[in-house]
DNA sequence: CCCTGATTCGC
DNA sequence: GCGAATCAGG
């Protein structure tokens, strides 16, 4: 693997975006292990992972010097989760387990595929707006949003380049109806987990 | 079962 | 440095 600046930039970008390692791997056409490994080496902030590896199964297990534990130093715990989206990061990546391929005796042919794309599973509870409620219907629109509801052409939001840099942009191609990505990118975005596994093919 | 990310260790 | 293998928690 040739970790060029560009690739690394993408990795960082996607990582920071909150995509899962597998997702990033898919985009970069590498395995998630590579992603995780590189990310770790780069010192990227660890994604919210449920596991806390402690045990040393195999080798290692050296005699740990029971030296001072030094409990002091109360470090500040993580304030909060900056991003909670986690797996739901990309637009409708939910399609993973969907599309049960064969399903014998099921008259439901292809429908299952790519149906509930941008489906919202977690109910978003947005109660009162944080920014004052004293704005029932501000007549603003001549400043920030002169022409709402116009140039609303859907476009593929596949990230290209590193967000934050001048070259970054989205695919922009016409997406498949019901999907956030164009046909080309949808194909790689929506891969059956079983199929992809760790195989990039 | 599937998913997820983290660490280890041979290369 | 790289990443597959392995581990481990949901």
Structure notes:
Residues 65-82, 105-117, 129-139 have a biased composition (Low complexity). The protein has helices at 5-17, 21-28, 32-42, 183-189, 193-196, and strands at residues 159-160, 169-170. The chain has a two-stranded antiparallel ribbon. Helices cover 21% and strands 2% of the residues. With 201 residues, the protein is mostly helical. The longest helix has 13 residues, at 5-17. Strand 1 and strand 2 form a beta hairpin. Among the domains are: 3-40; 157-197, no CATH class. The chain binds a DNA duplex (11 and 10 nucleotides) through helix 3.
What is the number of strand segments?
2
What would you call the structural class?
Answer: mainly alpha
- Rg (C-alpha, Å): 22 Å
| Approximate strand percentage | under 5%
Mean pLDDT value: 60
Protein name: GcrA cell cycle regulator
Region (Disordered): 39-159
Biased composition (Low complexity): 65-82, 105-117, 129-139
Pfam families: GcrA
């Amino acid at each position: 693997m040739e970790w060029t600046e560009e690739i690394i930039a993408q990795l960082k970008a996607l990582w920071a975006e909150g995509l899962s390692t597998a997702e990033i791997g898919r985009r970069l056409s590498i395995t998630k292990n590579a992603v995780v490994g590189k990310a770790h080496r780069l010192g990227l902030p660890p994604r919210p992972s449920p596991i806390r590896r402690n045990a040393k199964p195999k080798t290692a297990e050296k005699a740990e010097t029971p030296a001072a534990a030094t409990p002091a130093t109360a470090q500040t715990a993580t304030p909060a989760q900056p991003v909670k989206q986690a797996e739901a990061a990309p637009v409708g990546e939910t399609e993973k387990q969907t599309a049960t391929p064969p399903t014998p005796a099921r008259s439901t042919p292809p429908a299952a595929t790519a149906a509930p794309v941008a489906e919202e599973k977690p109910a978003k509870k947005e109660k009162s707006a944080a920014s004052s409620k004293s704005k029932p219907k501000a007549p603003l629109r001549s400043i920030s949003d002169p022409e709402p509801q116009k140039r609303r052409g859907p476009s593929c939001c596949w990230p290209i380049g590193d967000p934050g840099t001048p070259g970054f942009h989205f695919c922009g191609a016409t997406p498949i109806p019901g999907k956030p990505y164009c046909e080309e990118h949808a194909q790689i975005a929506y891969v059956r987990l079983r199929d992809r596994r760790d195989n990039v093919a």
